[in-house]
Task: structure prediction
Amino acid sequence: MVRIFSQRGQLDLPFNWIYVLIAGGVILLFFVGVVVKQKDVATQQLGTDVNQILSSIATAAAAAESTKVVVETSGLADETLYFECRNAQTEYGIKSKGSPVTDPIIPIFAPAEINSKELLLWSLPYFLPYKVTDFLYITSPTIQYILVGNDARVQEFLKESKSSEQAKFVLSVTKTADLASFSPQKGKQSFRIIDYTGLAVQPGGIVPAGLQKLENRQVSAVTFSGGAATFFVKKGTAWQSEGTTILFSLGGDLDAVHYAAVFSDHKDMFECGMQKAFQRLKYVSDVYEKKGLALENSPGAQDGNCPVLFSGLPWLLLAHQGDSTLCSDFYPENCVSLVQKSGEIRSLNQQLFSANCPPLY
Amino acid sequence: MIIKKTKQGQIHITETIAVLFIFFVLLFFGLVFYYKYADVSAKEQLAENLERRAVDSTTRFIFLPEVQCTQGELPPFSYCLDLLKLNAFKDMLLGDALDEYYFHLFSFAKITIQEVYPDPTRSWVVYNKPKIDYSSKKITYFSTALEDTSVFGGTEPSIYFGYVAMEVYS
Amino acid sequence: MISVSGGRNRKGQMEMIGLVVIVLLVTIAFLFLAQFALRDNSDDQFFARKQLAVSTLTAISKTTVQNCELDGPLEVLSVNDLLKDCADNPEGGFGFLCQGKYSCAYLQENLFPILFGGSLDTFKRRYEFVSFIIQNPDPPLLFLTGKNGGCQGRKNVDTSGDFPLNAGVGVIESRLLICD
Result:
């Protein structure tokens, strides 16, 4: 009997296992690489999508008066959205990631940073006296707004904090009679005090005890008094004023400028947004000035009392257009006369309506 | 002891090399397929983006305060353009306003308003910023009312019918 | 005698398992790709169709009509006025007279073909317009389809929504459908 021993098994078996390990390892590495890359791409894509959504919403906001929209950003819950405004250009995006969006047109009023699973967007038209543009306010349910005072605007803000069409649109708004004893709601990241008394928040005044332990960037305030707004930031346990700015507005319900001051956590953000609005006013006023001239010479403006009413319109519009240009170039110093001229144009337009003459707007 | 040599090892190695060769060929085809797909997908995405831009631009234009019809203090009319404002806006865009400001809204595009009734011979090219070496273009249309407040019949202006043609380039 | 050590040879089974694994991996890869291929991207198309339907009917309803009379020339008459008159006098005989035709005939034969023809037909769209009295919807007061066809049996049909109008005989509903 001859036994033939083959060493094939000794070579075959280990070689098979080595082959399996190498091939399996390569395939596994490939898929791990794909997954990791996809995750990065997905985050970038989500960031770009959110920016695109914000851009589209800003467009859609112009198509409907007083739009309220909720944008889901749960995929970005670990990221921070930032908003900056400099030289009449708003920049927003994900902090340290992706490509930010720059918008020189739409006045956006938002906190400097938002870290939330949802964004709440609200738009209001700005009139001076005709519609100039839509303001876009961006906030989130993680920001708590604390109202102080008994002004009619307190009730208005409380009413507007919810939407009848969008059940998920809920701003966190609380009214308090005693700011000193206020204690912050759990789960909120930032707190903004809206003081309609002009007394609750003062330069050098003490920050409510319940908010003192928070970081400075988490707490801010604005007071409204005499047609102006004063912005405050927290510095330790005291308030520091960022300065006072006049609210160039004709007032009334749902005043876009008032809410712009409410939702901007810094004076810079507010003033930069207003600068964009006045740039737009320059062009809109130019159009209305030309329309006024065309209307004055139109057949419909020759009947009854119309010629008398129209005689004053062209110079008023020309002056308003000139003031708009000056205000846009030298905001806010040269903007004071705008509100008065706007009031006069509005009054004249109402007279045109009453006299059955073709109105300016 | 007799050790019998066989060629089975050599055959086995050849088999293994063949398998590996097939494996890499399959991988290569897979990668080619993936990149081709990605390329087609990217082109489709560009086309979609252009379409979205066209719709966005048209919506922006129709609701522009510079051209939209108004009703005093009441909310403005939807899908209505004021002809007097349209003419004034067109004239304004012949100056620096287009490049300084409105280009940021509409980019490379051509916006034409065509009247359909009562006078279909009337049209206005309000915004014209063509792109010389464009790779593709897309046109969207929206119907609109055209209000002529200079022709004031009693207490109501005349309202014509037309459409906005928004041509965007990429 | 030559004996080959080892018992049963399981190599075939192992190779079969290997094949199954490869097939599974390839299937997963194709499923991964398929989800992108089958993704529905028609949201923007839907928005554009719907907005076109809404804008067309909104604009048409506001349009003022020229050259109409009612015991003398009229200065201002809107399409809505003609529609109400059509509902109140569907057979004609009295009411507004535009270029020798009563309201329903004028809208069906003259005005709407001009308005829809100059817009939706120019855009090469398929559409259907219908206007009827809610209390008596059949037959409709007015019905038009596009030169490129109507929307019966078509997919991706979007509507302008209902445009109600109060007339003497009841409420008139007008609706525009635009489809692919």
